[in-house]
Amino acid sequence: MRAAPRTSLAVALLALGTGSSAAAQGGPPLRTDDPGTPGPGRWEVNTAVTIERIQGQTAFEAPLADVNYGVGERIQLKVEMPLELIVGSGRRLDTGLGNPLIGVKWRFAEDTASGFAISTYPQLELVSPARTDAARLERGGDALLLPVEVTGRWGELDLNAEVGYQLVAHTSGEIIYALAVGRELSARLGLAAECHATSDARLAERTTVCSVGGREMVGEHFTLLGAVGRGVGGPRAERPSLAAYLGLQTVW
Predict the structure, then answer these.
(1) Is the separation of the CB atoms in 78 and 84 below 8 Å?
(2) What is the pLDDT of residues 118-176, one digit of tens each?
(3) SS3 94
(4) DSSP element (H, E) containing 177
(5) Which of 15, 43, 75, 243 is the most exposed place for a label (fewest CB within 10 A)?
(6) pTM for this entry
(7) Which residues pair with 8 in a beta bridge?
(8) Does domain 8-251 sit in CATH 1.10.3720.10?
(9) CA distances from 79 to 17, 101, 173, 214, 236 (A)
(10) DSSP per residue over 53-64, as a string?
(11) Residue 166 CB: number of other CB atoms within 10 A?
(12) What is the DSSP pairing of strand 143-154 with strand 116-120?
């Protein structure tokens, strides 16, 4: 149930020093990614529960395991795997492994004085072998996301933009574009606003989601993550009336 999986306009939170460099506010619990990386030899593990409700059907990722590892100062390796629970009409419950996601982020340009940075973050989503043939056809097949992320500062605000193209098997593909704005309230607490959208290749059919959220450090290695929002545009059949993320980030 990920938006690209990783959808539109949303609000969420700031990375409070978990990246090696490149001040940023993207990444969990946001849909928008940013150029930040964990740092050399550092692990970042996000364990979360997500909820998305669309026209009487509620999909949970419980849990969603998102494991990241820093290679040098500017590279991040990622593996993500959800366990999905889908409650449909009539309270019928379907469970199974969701689609695994693997990715590599490379921050190829950076100016630490201004906070400006650019990265690319290719991510491959594979249709879970646990899905039925009908579910595979509905999802469209394996998907490869090819995005670029840009971050910078404007006064006390951190700005982050992302744009990319997603190749989806058996379909014409999708375009993603997003904007996040964040601010640190203290050394441990940050809030942000995000706009994240997906559309077809002609920019004709767009799905938009808006959320609010934040993150708070609760220890040297632990940060609470949370965001909640809803769809504000796009076809009703694809517009979530609720999109939520609640998780714990561990770094070491």
Answers:
(1) no
(2) 999 999 999 887 665 445 445 567 999 999 999 999 999 999 999 999 998 877 789 99
(3) strand
(4) strand 174-184
(5) 43
(6) 0.86
(7) 196
(8) no
(9) 21, 6, 22, 23, 31
(10) EETTEEEEEEEE
(11) 21
(12) antiparallel
